[in-house]
Automatic annotation (TrEMBL):
Record-level GO cellular component terms: endoplasmic reticulum
Protein name as it appears in the record: Hsp70-binding protein 1-like
Organism name: Diaphorina citri (Asian citrus psyllid)
Lineage: Eukaryota, Metazoa, Ecdysozoa, Arthropoda, Hexapoda
UniProt keyword terms in alphabetical order: Repeat
Pfam family, one: Fes1
Amino acid sequence: MDSYFKTLGPLNGELTEDFNGLLAPVIRQPIRLEDSQAQPNLAIEYAPNQDIPARQPRQPSNLQDLLRYAVEAGSRSRAQEAPNINRAASMNEANRGFLLDALNSMMVNVGAELEKIIKTLKENQDQKDICIGALDNLSDYICSIDYANDFLKMGGLPVLQPLLEGSDPELRWRAAETVADIVQNNPFSQNFIIQTDFLNLLLTSIEHDSNTTVQVKSLYAVSCLVRENEECLKEFIKRDGFSVLLRCIQSKKEKLVIKSCFLIACLCTDNNQVKQVLLSMGMVEQMCVLIDIEDALDTEMNEHLLSALASLIKDSPEAQSLCRLEPLNLKFKLNFIKEKHAGNEVYHKELEYVNSVLTEVFEEDSPEEFDHQDR
């Protein structure tokens, strides 16, 4: 077998120092890769004047990266305007110190900030404005899952309980909203909180609080807690959470109805256990009765009731059979809504659910316009 000799051309490197003190080699000579004469057709050459695509700068992910990105972009722009000017000189100490001071002033010790917030909430439970300010600051951090988890690990949850149980409705709903922000799409926080009594506190607020905003925010927190978390859902069922949702729907408070139906629709999807629980407590019949073709005809409540009902009856012959009970008068209601809102784009989703239920329960084909619309 022929042997090949590959010669690597000289590599000249020049070191330049950027503003952050990082050293990067700047390659001045192209690399030439040559094979022996035995294999001339395998030779690969990189001509010195060959156009090589410029390396795209790394996208900034924090303040330090953003500053570096801006400096590099400015340098490239100036280089294009005056390519013959050498700008490879090191940054002088004065400018370097200024940039470092600017970066340090923008960096925040989040752990220290969380400790400060916890202390503020603990020591100022009766100072509404101070607590609101602390909760607002906290919301800036707990949108990050890591910082939300840190808040719980540092003992932040107990300082929220007095606010949730307190006399001021604004602090109650803000505390519930904070819990929702902490647990949303966050398995660690969900599993952490479900080990406490907070689910009971939230369910109590939903059912008994006199302020609708507190009820809605508490329901939002429960929804964030139990969706897509089997352990939390088991606790929710164990503590009779669906009965709380049923009473929310029966209250006919629009926001409570909408959020309750949304949660039911989510939990019913591909979950036969949830469907059986709801069937056993008469949820299908209640939803059919609560579909209102008079007072609520022009509200969003019917749309969300129908959405939840469509999820509940899907692939469930038992639920579909219940919908056909004559006293419920469901078919008449569905056809009335269908006729009333026909051609009105505002009610497009509601009409989708109407046709879905008619098809599933009464074996009526959906109109062609719904079969071909882009959903």
